[in-house]
Each structure stands twice: as C-alpha cells, then as structure tokens.
Amino acid sequence: xxxxxxxxxxxxxxxxxxxxxxxxxxxxxxxxxxxxxxxxxxxxxxxxxxxxxxxxxxxxxxxxxxxxxxxxxxxxxxxxxxxxxxxxxxxxxxxxxxxxxxxxxxxxxxxxxxxxxxxxxxxxxxxxxxxxxxxxxxxxxxxxxxxxxxxxxxxxxxxxxxxxxxxxxxxxxxxxxxxxxxxxxxxxxxxxxxxxxxxxxxxxxxxxxxxxxxxxxxxxxxxxxxxxxxxxxxxxxxxxxxxxxxxxxxxxxxxxxxxxxxxxxxxxxxxxxxxxxxxxxxxxxxxxxxxxxxxxxxxxxxxxxxxxxxxxxxxxxxxxxxxxxxxx
Amino acid sequence: xxxxxxxxxxxxxxxxxxxxxxxxxxxxxxxxxxxxxxxxxxxxxxxxxxxxxxxxxxxxxxxxxxxxxxxxxxxxxxxxxxxxxxxxxxxxxxxxxxxxxxxxxxxxxxxxxxxxxxxxxxxxxxxxxxxxxxxxxxxxxxxxxxxxxxxxxxxxxxxxxxxxxxxxxxxxxxxxxxxxxxxxxxxxxxxxxxxxxxxxxxxxxxxxxxxxxxxxxxxxxxxxxxxxxxxxxxxxxxxxxxxxxxxxxxxxxxxxxxxxxxxxxxxxxxxxxxxxxxxxxxxxxxxxxxxxxxxxxxxxxxxxxxxxxxxxxxxxxxxxxxxxxxxxxxxxxxxxxxxxxxxxxxxxxxxxxxxxxxxxxxxxxxxxxxxxxxxxxxxxxxxxxxxxxxxxxxxxxxxxxxxxxxxxxxxxxxxxxxxxxxxxxxxxxxxxxxxxxxxxxxxxxxxxxxxxxxxxxxxxxxxxxxxxxxxxxxxxxxxxxxxxxxxxxxxxxxxxxxxxxxxxxxxx
Lengths: 328, 508
Fold this sequence. Notes:
The complex is a heterodimer of chains A (328) and B (508). Chain A contains 15 helices and four strands. Chain A has helices spanning 7-10, 18-45, 52-61, 63-77, 85-103, 105-127, 134-153, 167-170, 178-196, 198-208, 210-214, 220-246, 257-268, 279-298, 303-326; strands at residues 158-159, 172-173, 176-177, 248-249.
C-alpha cells in the first residue's frame, strides 16, 4: 500500500525529534492497543463476554453505526463532514415502514434506501457546487430531513405487519444475522474502494490538498459529492435495516447517531481534517465503543460513567491527531 | 516605549545573513538607514529586498550578522518585538480586520480604555490628532472592507502611527495603486519623513524610488551591490546595478529548435478580466519559450488560464493542431498539457503522501485496469520516471515532506512526465531548489524539448529564462509587451521591457 495510512510513513524521518515519533506512533497504533486492552479486560472480568452469543450480539448491535461509519470514513478523508446521517437514518426507516403496505416489503425497503441516497446527493451538491460549509449544510439538511420524517410518520410510530418486512433485520444465515453480514460487506467494499481503486486515491487527494488535487486533473467537487452520496446511501441502508428489525418506523429513531458515527471514525484515528485515515480503523473504532457499551452492561456499572468514559476517549483521539499534526 | 538614542543612524545592518530552506536569501549585507529619511531597497525579483525589509521589521530573524537599532544590537523574533522599538511593516498583504470600522482597526490592541471599557470620546480625539500628524484622514466609521486599497493603506499607516512607529517598512506599497493614488502615497511618505519618521521603501518601481528616496540600496542575488545617496542615480544606472553577473556557465548548451518544427501549442487572444488580455503565442516542437516579467505582471495567471486552473473569459487554445475547450485542469491534462505550479507545496504535491502516490496521481488511468490500481505496474512506472528525473528510488515510499526542496521539485517533474505531455508549462521550476538540483532540472527541460516537447518556462530569475529559453516573451500589466529572440535576447533588453523604460520597449 502506498497511502499515508501505512505505519512506515506516518513516522517521518524525524531524527532528533523523538517526541514526534512517539506521538505519531500512539496515534497510529492507539486504536489497536485500546481495542485489545478492552477486549482482554472484558474477557477476564466477565464470564459471559467471550461467548459467541455475546460477541455476535455486539456485532449485530453495532451494525447500523458501523455501516454509516464506514461510508463516513471516505467522506471525512475526502474533506467532507455529515451531521445529517441520524435524521437520514430515521427518514429512511420511516419511508420504508410507510411504504410497506402499498408497495410490499422488498420495494419499500429499496425506496427507503433511495430516500437516504437522495439526501446524500443533496448534501453533496450543497457542500460542493453550493459552496456551503459542510457543517452548516448538513446541519440544516438534518433539520429539514427530520421535519420530512415527521410528516411521513405524522408524528406516530408506524408499526408494520406486512409479511417479509422483518426478514432483512431479523434474518440469519449460519447463525449470523443478515445485519452483521451487511456491515461486513460495507466495511470490505469501502476499504477496497479506498485502498485498491483510483477512486480511493482521488478521495485521499481531495481531502489532503484540494488545490493540488484539482491541478492534477481530479474533479474534487465530484469526488466529494460522491462521498456525501455514499454517506446518505449508508444511512439509508442502516435505517431500513433497523426499521426492519423492529418492524417500525419512527421519526426520531436516529437521534444522536451522527455523533456516534463521527466518534467511532475519529477514535479509530481517521483525521477530521481530511486526507488521512482508513476503514479498518473505523471498524475498530466502532467495535471499541460497542465493547465499552457491552462491558458496562455485563459488569453492571452505572451507565452515567459510560458517557464520561466515551467522551474522554474521543477527546484523547482528537487531541492526539491535533498534536501529532502540529509538530510536523 | 523607548526613547530614541541620539545619532543619525536609525538602523544599521552588519553582514546579515538569511537562508530559506537551505537557499541563501541574503548574504553578508551591510546597510545603514539614516533617521528621518526614505531609504529604498531595490533589486530584481528574489534579490532579497523584501527579505531585508522583513528582517528589520522582525518578520524574519537573521541567521547571522548584527542588526542595530538606535545604536543597540537587537534580535527580533517577532514583529511585536520590533514594534517595541517603534518599527512596523506595511506588508504587501494588508492585515486589517475587514469587517470592522477604520477607527477600530487603527486602535486595535492599543485602545484607550478604563479597565475593559473603551473610552470612545478619547479615541475620537486621538484619531483626529493622528490624522493631523499624518497629514491625511480617512472616515473613522467606514467599514474597512468598503475602502479602496489606497485608503486601506492609509489606515495601515494611521495604525502604525497610533503605535508610535518611528520607522515604517513599506513593501511594494504602490504596486496595486493607480498612478494618481501612488503619487498621493509618495506625498504622504515625504510628509511623514519631514515629521521625523524613517521609511524603508521596498519597490520595483524605479521611478517612484527616484522620486522620493534619499538613499538607495541595490541588491542582487541576496548580496549588496551598492548602498548610498539617491542623487546621481537614474533608472538606467539602477537597472545596470540590478543586472545579474555575466551569463552563468551553469546553463547547459541549448539545441536550437528547427524553424519548421510543428507548432504544438498555439494560444490566441487569451483574456481573463483583471489578470491579462490579448495573449497570443505559439510554441514549436523542441522549443523552450520563456515568459519573463515582474511579479504580478500576469505570467502565472496566463499559465493557469491555459491549464484551466482559472476560467478564461476569451481565447482559443490549440494543441497539436486540435482546438481544445479547456474548462478545468482535467481537460488540459487530457489535451496533453502539463503544468508545474508555482508553489509545489500548496498546489503541486500532497506533502504527507508518498513520493510514489504523488507521481501517479495525475495519471491514475496509466497504472490501473478498470479503476483497480495495478500495484506492480504503478511501482514500475513510477520508479522508471523517478530514475529519469534523478530521484533516488529508495525514496519512493517516504512522504514527500521529508525530501529536500530539490527532490520535491524533481518529484513534481516525475508526476507530469509519467505520461509524456505535448506541452509542459513550468512555473518557477527551480524555486527553493539547491544549485545541484537546478542543473539537473535545466538538463531535464532541455532534453525534454530536444525530444520534441514544447516547453514554456516562467521564472522570476531572469538568468534562468535567458539561459534556457530559445525565445522570451516579456509581460507587463497583463500584456505581452515584447518578444526577444537572437540578438535581442539579453538581460538588458528584457529587464528594460519588464521595467517599462523606453529603450527596452523598442526591442520588440
């Protein structure tokens, strides 16, 4: 691999500046160490933790955030930001639930996903051609989308009893849920797109130095818009997945989800400033936060502390990123 | 605020040195700036005049030598420290808070206040007093963003006076002004001088310099040519002093392009409002065309326009006989045009990405099958071209930022040579590059031309343009003012054309 995520390059030849090397190393491997530490800790402290039932449950529970975060990784690397995925997630679920009766389950789910893609495309256009700051653009669209979701559900919880609607969310193959497969597939596809294709190179370039990318003949706006679309699509997939699992559509289903997604990506070590990152990092980031969640459950610790711990971890990740950049 | 020590010498520089990224910007320069005089610093682009001005104002710190202010040796590490001694700089890029009023800007950081509460009435009074001191005024309540550039400069001067500046470094203050505004500014400068302010005037407008300066220091390649009273100097004597050393032997021998070689690039009537107009020229296969001119004459803008980096308002671009519509760099790359931008760090390279990743970025199609990158082919192609431009292939997997300036620039060349373009435009191809790498780059440019490419070289180093190009166009104020070939291809003619003194204009 030739991209910046390789450990060998992230440590610049900075002889005589050992502090830089140390910080970069922490930033590089921090997520791996943290993940393993929590994993080992829970394995020792809890009897239940290391059972296939529990681990599969952790995977399934984290699927929705995981799917969105994998797409979000490409978005962040390309220099974008998306605060609307929570609202989009809810809208897609609500649309799928609403359409289940008239359209039948399969088509309803597809329409739900399409709604997510549409929001993503809109965000992409606003943030690139529209030259609106991504934070503001996606914050505004998230408010609008949440409003549309309320109109769709008319403020109620939509219960679906259309046969087959819950197959996607409830189904299993070889004892593993479809949701888990879907998450795995998303991670592999996003990772492959980023590392093996010309598209991935353009994504890195667009975030790393947009002007240099443009002067290399890359259509930066197009690349960025595509990552917004991907983010919306992923939110759509996650939305219908959860709606199918619980057989309901609800306008406020995704509240706070955008923060979980960004937290997972950042904790993994992908930079919020763009140009650097990897999908495998995000996978570990999502799993780390999921393990902490699981650990608090298993060890029956007051969940109040969980918030504090998660906030501290996110802060540490971002601080490491900022410091390791500043010293270069 | 320290009171000035007596003595006529305000600032004395003794043997000051300054290097940027290993390249000498100033070497052993001695200058004496007398109190309450206008002291001009002149020289070609890159001669070190701005650097010297910034050094005195604390923007840069000298690497060696002694700087004395009011008879005391000083070592400024920031403009703030220079300000304590009453020294400030009016930079080329103004540093005003655009959305706030004139008076707020003037007193920013030195407000009259009681605790945290501003004393507006006192500030008004002081503003009037300052205006009187300066001999001009600007509407105190106007929002700075709405002012013309000339008025913004006045605000900067008032701000300097509000900080009790006794020495103001002005870096190309007249460059962006109309003739009338420039005259006004020169009058203000004279007036400030008569009130005891010392002014260091960095400018390439020799007429302006001669109109106001008491003393003139001429720099060339970072070294002092002479420093003394302005009396007796003329535009010609200054230009002669600024001229480089005799044409350097460091340039390889150029092979003349065949007169009947096919034209590979032809541009006609290029125009971009506010940047350039009426730009037409042709470059033949095997030919190196140089574009010379002062910074801001529109050279870079023309290159960017041809490459699609900036939108053109009018004009026709023909590559290898085919008219091309170029709306973005991607179109230019497809048409076979490559451009090495002026700033490799900001516009050319992804500094944190590997050399390999940079080299293939502009031609990913060459190293992939159906969008899947063929790692082996990528590596092979990149190593081949890196070898050709003279970058150690062992460096292929390190981040570009760890390379020397010379190797970074060669990497940029490799990036655009991975797939041979028809036309290569190189904007400042050797900026911030060591002497050894310069020679490698010169050899490379000549051999590319010899292989049939059309090359356009833009450089602020006149010697470089003259040493490489078969033909040179001089630009001034967005237009091509002369063409030099054969016997008219010499420093004097080109420099005169660039500076617009009458003898040079006849050279076309």
